[in-house]
Structures are given as structure tokens and as C-alpha cells.
Amino acid sequence: MKYADAEDESRLWLAAARLFIEIPYAESLKDRRHIVRSVTDGARSRFAISAADLGPADAHKKAVIGFAFCGSSQSELRERMANLEKYLFFREEEGEFEIVRFSPEVFNYGDISDRQDK
């Protein structure tokens, strides 16, 4: 369904990121879940962000966490992602995990929906 009148007035921007971490002191999947939950719950409470454990489900020394925001401007989301990144690197300094890679992206929803309509 298309909403022609609303398309120009309200732009929907999306921001998504994957955080790849190593958890050197985890001895079990329970240890891994504890660290991942601590990171996701902390990010959710500070940033009103969606966060999910993306796996791998069978490895207790590694994790990938996904984060997502939506908003009305690209600059707002870039700033929120920068703040999230600062928070994650601050948490890394506590020593529970090591960041391997943080890969944020910001894009316009119209770019996605236009491709699906074709």
C-alpha cells in the first residue's frame, strides 16, 4: 500500500549495527549469555534501542549482537550510533569482553522499499 501524500513529509531513517565480540573469560554458554544480556540490557536502557543476540549459538567465546534505531533524520541517527559506540567501548574497558568489530549503517527506508516495489 502506498501513501503518496505522506512520502515527502515524513522520512524514515534506520540505523543498524553489528557488534562482534570475543569473551575470553567465558567458560560456558551461561557465561556468554550473561555478558551478552548485560550489554544488550545496558544499551536498551540507555538508548531506547532494539538489541538482539545474533549468535553463534554454539560458541561460548564469541558473540554477535545486533542493534537498531529508527528516526526522522540521518544526522540524529549518526549521533545516536556514535554515542552507542562510545558506550560499548567504555563497557569493553571493564574487561568482560573484547570488541572485534563494530559496524554501523544508516540508511533511508525509502531506499529499501523502492527496491522491493520493483
Describe this structure in words.
18% of the residues are buried. This protein is α+β, with helices and mostly antiparallel strands and 118 residues long. The chain is 43% helix and 31% strand. It has a four-stranded antiparallel beta sheet with strand order 2-3-1-4. It contains four helices and four strands; from the N terminus they run H-E-H-E-E-H-E-H. The protein is elongated, with a radius of gyration of 17 Å. It has a single domain, classed as TT1725-like (Alpha-Beta Plaits), CATH 3.30.70.
N-to-C CA distance: 14 Å
Number of helices: 4
Given helix and strand content, the structural type is alpha+beta
- What would you call the shape? elongated
Physical arrangement of strands within the biggest beta sheet: 2-3-1-4
How many β-strand runs? 4
- So, the CATH homologous superfamily? TT1725-like
**Low-confidence regions:** none
Mean pLDDT: 88
CATH architecture: 2-Layer Sandwich
Question: How many domain regions?
Answer: 1
Helix share, percent? 40-55%
Strand content: 25-35%
CATH class, anyone?
Answer: Alpha Beta
Give the SSE order as H and E letters.
HEHEEHEH
